[in-house]
Structure formats: structure tokens, C-alpha cells
Amino acid sequence: MDFLIDNECFYKAISDVNKAVSLKTPFSILSGIKIIAYYDSLVLVGGNSDLVIEKVIPLAVDGVKVLEVIKTGSVVIPAIHLSEIIKKLPAKVHLRVNEKELVIIQSEEIITEIFGFNSDQYPMLPQIDETDYIKISSSELIEIIKQTTFAVSKSESQPALTGVKMLFKDSHLSIAATDSHRLALREIIVESNIKGSFIVPSSSLNELTKLINNNYSEIRIYVNESFMVFKTSTFTLFARLIEGNYPNITGLLPKNSKTTITLDTAQLLRGIDRACLFASEWKNNNVQLAIIDGKKLKISSNSSKIGKIEETQKIKEIKGETDLTISLDGSYLINALKVIKEEEIRLSFGGSMRPVLIEPINNPSYIHLISPVRSY
To answer: Does 162 map to a domain?
Structure first.
């Protein structure tokens, strides 16, 4: 194998696949990055048992030549050393491999030699049937991931809740995340011939958003028995599915409410953020909401060591009962409000000890549910 490549382009690809490489593995070859040189492209692969990333570098990017393949071939190079070496090189990289898997990396007058592994020993990529797939714009996929993944559980005691449930049905994609105290749910229409429900690790989806970075117009999603696969023209991400049963999301949503109020989204977010300054003493970052005089919302929190903070905000519209006081986790509210793009939101209350439903005005495709917390 022998090729010349732009050092910045090479380092970017190495960094991308390196996100999936685990250094804590009993098999040393899995701590490496597999590099395959074809005459028309360079392919890099890094992975672990749960996540695999494949990156393709073409001969030219935006009309600028970045790669010249002199001789095809493949090798596996320790990821940590490869990344650090390429990062510190000043110019174009010339990489070649001899028959004993010795990798020679040269840039200007700098020559580095590193022992590689035989690529035949590297695991094969999961097989996918490309007949059935979902097609979605990258910007929309990034948005729905950011609007849901923050609500997953951080505890491994219930593995299914650390993932995001993706349900494909009748050209609709429903994405849900919950930690049993809150729920984020987003629905969109997609071009799809796949049906079924799958639990995808939130960590894999977050890595996917970093790879996309708004550089791709369209993404195709494939599914097999063990993986959900996200593919563009230059990268493929394989996310191992989580086994287990996910809660019945429909059963969690309230059927009716006693009080609904409409508020300015950005203003409420700023108010909750201020209230959280004194809420950290509480286990659940308690912030109290109360309706005052039937037309204002009081937001407050207190600390026995610091003091208290409160403010009132104008309610744009109110329906139902006006006698309401409820305590919520302020950080949960902030997480939900930050990803809502609409200028106004509707909060629906079933009582002081019932979950609060948050809905953007004129956007029924996204809802958020937060359970109340005790204020004593």
C-alpha cells in the first residue's frame, strides 16, 4: 500500500473514526484503525462492540485534489499513535506499508515508522440489505436527535432507557426518550419502506450529529437484526441496537388537563435559568411555578444558605383553573426549552402532582413531559 494525502484531510478522517475506537480491549487489533487504499478512494474504519464508523476520502474534495493512491492495499494502525503522528505533521503525508506490515509515514523531512497489523484479522463490517431504507435530510435528523437524546437515562440499571426508541410506521418516524421522570417525543414524516420499533444508543446518535455537522444534505438509514446504519456519500455509522422492552409511551401522555397557559418561550427559559441559581441545594433543582391573580406566572426558588429569587411573567393565554402551584426540576425545564424553536409554548397541568405537558405552539410534532418533584 502506498499513497499521498493532504495531512489536514487525513487527520480529520482519523479523528472521526477514532471516536469509535476503544483502547480498553483485550484484542490489540481493535485498538487500531483499518485503512484500505483503492485507486479511487481511501477508506478508514474504527469500531468497538457497539459502534463502528467508516469514513471515505475521495481523490478530490470540492474540486481540490487531496489523495493520490500509488498502490492499493490495507493495514491496521494503532489509533492513538496514528492520530498523534498525523496531528503533528506539517505538510502532505506519504504513507506506505511493506510486506511485513511496517508502516512508513513521511512528511517533508520527517519520517516515522510504526508496526501495523494484518488487516485480514480485523472484524468484517456488519452486512446490511440496502433494499429497504429511510431517507431523511441531515438538518432534520440533527434537530430531532438534539430534541430527544438529552432525556435518556444516565443509569445503566435499565439499559433500554439509555437509548432512544425509533418507531417507523406508515411513512412516520416517531422518536422518544425518557428516564422515567421526563419524556421527549418527536414525530416527522419520512420517505421509508421500513417498519418496526428499535432502541438506538443515545451515545451513538450524539456521535452521528458530530459526523454530520450540516455537511450532508441527505442521510439513508438501514436496519438489520443487530444494527441501525446511517449512511452518506462519505461516511457510514453502525450503531448496535439495544435489546429490551421500552415503556409504552402512549400510556404516559395525559388525556386531559385542568389548566393550560401560553408563554413566551425565550422569556420563560431565561426566568427558569435565573431561578436555578438558588435551586442547586435541592436534590432535584426545585423551581416553583405558581399562577398569580389569574394572569401572571411566578417563578421562584430558595436556598436556606443563600436566599431566594422570584419573578413574575405575563401569561399570554390561560384556560381552566387558575389556582396552581407546582415544583419541577429546573434543569429538566431548561433542557426542554432550549431545543424548542417556536416563540411560544403551551404548558398543560393536571394538578400539582401530575406531569406537565410542554408543547410548542403550532407544532404538534414535538412534546415534552416532566414529572413534578416534592418541595419538602
So the answer is: yes
Q: Rounded to an integer, what distance in angstroms lies between the CA atom of residue 291 and that of residue 324?
A: 6
Q: Are residues 260 and 343 in the same domain?
A: yes
- Could you please report the per-residue DSSP string of 148-200? TGGGS-S-TTSGGGGEEEEEEETTEEEEEEE-SSEEEEEEEE-EE---EEEEE
Residue of 51, 73, 69 lying closest to 60 (CA atoms): 69
Q: Quick check: 233 and 216 in contact, CB under 8 A?
A: yes
Helices (H), 297-350: 330-338
The residue length of the chain stands at 376
Which residue range(s) make up the domain with 58?
A: 2-121
Q: Which long-range contacts (CB under 8 A, 24 or more apart) does 278-283 make?
A: 278/302, 278/303, 278/306, 278/307, 278/308, 278/309, 279/303, 279/330, 281/305, 281/306, 282/373
pLDDT in tens, the chain (376 residues): 999 999 999 999 999 999 999 888 888 899 999 999 999 999 999 999 899 999 999 999 989 999 999 999 999 999 999 999 999 999 999 999 998 999 999 999 999 999 999 999 999 999 988 888 999 999 999 999 999 999 999 988 899 999 999 999 888 899 999 999 999 999 999 888 888 999 999 999 999 999 987 566 889 999 999 999 999 989 999 999 999 999 888 778 888 899 999 999 999 999 999 998 877 666 678 899 999 999 999 999 887 677 889 999 999 999 999 999 999 999 999 999 999 999 999 999 999 899 999 999 999 899 999 999 876 5
In whole angstroms, give the CA distance from residue 320 to residue 218.
44
- Whether residue 126 lies inside any domain: the answer is no
Query: Which residue do the cell numbers 456521535 mark?
Result: 207
Q: Are residues 215 and 107 part of one domain?
A: no
Same domain for 236 and 218: yes
Within a domain: residue 46?
yes
Question: Is 128 within a domain?
Answer: no
Question: C-alpha distances in angstroms, 29 versus 43, 209, 249, 279?
Answer: 17, 27, 42, 48
Q: C-alpha cell of 117?
A: 497489523
CATH number for position 343: 3.70.10.10
